[in-house]
Amino acid sequence: MNNIKxxxxxxxxxxxxxxxxxxxxxxxxxxxxxxxxxVRVVATGRNLKKVHEVIPPDIPxxxxxxxxxxxxxxxKEQKEMFHRNIIQSSAQKLLKYFIQRGISFHAFFPAPGNxxxxxxxxxxxxxxxxxxxxxxxxxxxxxxxxxxxxxxLCQFLVxxxxxxxxxxxxxxxxxxxxxxxxxxxxxxxITAGYIWIEIFHQSVSKGNGVKHICDLLGIGQKQTLGIxxxxxxxxxxxxxQHSFFTANAPSExxxxxxxxxxxxxxxxxxxxxxxxx
Length: 277
What we know:
Strand order of the largest sheet: 5-4-3-2-1-12-13-14
Number of helices: 9
CATH architecture of the largest domain: 3-Layer(aba) Sandwich
Largest sheet: 8 strands, mixed
Helix content: 25-40%
Distance between the termini: 11 Å
Number of strands: 14
Order of helices and strands: EHHEHEEEHEEHEEHEEHEHEEH
CATH class of the largest domain: Alpha Beta
CATH superfamily of the largest domain: HAD superfamily/HAD-like
């Protein structure tokens, strides 16, 4: 790990503590990486607005890969660099599919304004759907089935109770609707026992977002390090040469990559220690 030029970290459950604060050790680790001219990247499922809620402007990151790779943002210059949305024809097919199936969902405006979203509440909506709605209702607009938005969309969110077999079945069905999308699984950051099913353009992933930055800066894949804690970090860690899961990752993921301490115990600072010594 002597030639690392870029370090990418997930936020929730990885870089941030459970109370969404940043530990002194992690902040110091970021500062030292900057002194060594190592590029510091956030790769998160959060949209840009939600990134700003937990990362103040003076925190020394260089780039933000947001919404699981739907966009890339230059943190130093506070400038949008890149985004990828679901094309309109695919978005229409997905909207009709979920409505016809009676599946509650959120459909997000095109990035980078994808903190705004439409919602469709079926008779079978779960408590987790309502919690998410309550947290985000200031940016929510009720979807009218007889007047669907005619636009690209950044992503869809469907929430189900923890059931990997149901997830795999839905994933297969959804990806068969159109060829330009992909389905990502992540654990609910609100309530344990729920799966968040996120649907994006087929090229969207945290790994591709980091690759975009590497290509721009002339950094080779073998010069990268990544750290995450959940299913939606698999694309990131599949791209980075040196990859780590935190101790608080789901048990079925822990054997894929080397372990780091938990997010409560300065996982980020621990992982990059060999670089900065």
